[in-house]
Task: inverse folding
């Protein structure tokens, strides 16, 4: 150390000064921040609400979507992604119905418009899909009837009737 150096300073002490703004610069910065805040408030976010409703004829069937129980018809659920879904309806006395449905994205949900419609549209969009699936009554099992008739005919043949 040189004799002229301050005894409390070291070569690692660095003094960083803040930038000094003039009053005009400060008022300009404050005005810019207010304008930015107003612009952000005028650009409300958008929102797309996706919902599907599944109906059956007759009502009251258990609904499974992609293997998960979601309720009994008529039922409505919210969903996030578009694409193919497997809908299965189960009800006592009726044949189980399984359908693969393609939930296609509307034009405003394709890239890059989806980013704008989800975030900056300024209104809420409702994308509501409805699927009506008819159910058929279960037919009696005819194979059991055939076996019983065959056994009856055999016993009649054995006894000579």
Result:
């Amino acid at each position: 150390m040189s004799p002229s150096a301050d005894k409390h300073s070291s070569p690692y002490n660095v003094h960083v000064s803040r930038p000094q703004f003039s009053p005009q610069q400060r008022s300009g910065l404050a005005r810019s921040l207010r304008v930015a805040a107003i612009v952000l408030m005028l650009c409300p976010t958008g929102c797309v609400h996706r919902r599907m409703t599944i109906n059956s004829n007759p009502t009251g069937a258990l609904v499974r979507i992609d293997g998960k129980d979601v309720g009994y018809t008529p039922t409505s659920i919210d969903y996030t992604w578009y694409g193919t879904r497997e809908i299965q309806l189960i009800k006592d006395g009726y044949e189980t119905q399984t359908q693969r449905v393609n939930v296609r994205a509307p034009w405003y949900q394709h890239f890059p418009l989806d980013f704008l419609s989800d975030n900056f549209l300024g209104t809420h969009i409702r994308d509501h899909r409805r699927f009506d699936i008819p159910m058929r009554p279960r037919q009696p099992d005819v194979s059991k009837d055939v076996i019983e008739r065959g056994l009856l005919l055999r016993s009649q043949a054995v006894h000579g009737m």
Observations:
- Strands lie at 47-57, 62-65, 68-72, 75-78, 83-90, 97-103, 124-134.
- The chain is about 25% helix and 30% strand.
- Residues 47-134 form a domain with the Immunoglobulin-like fold (CATH 2.60.40).
- The first strand starts at residue 47 and ends at 57.
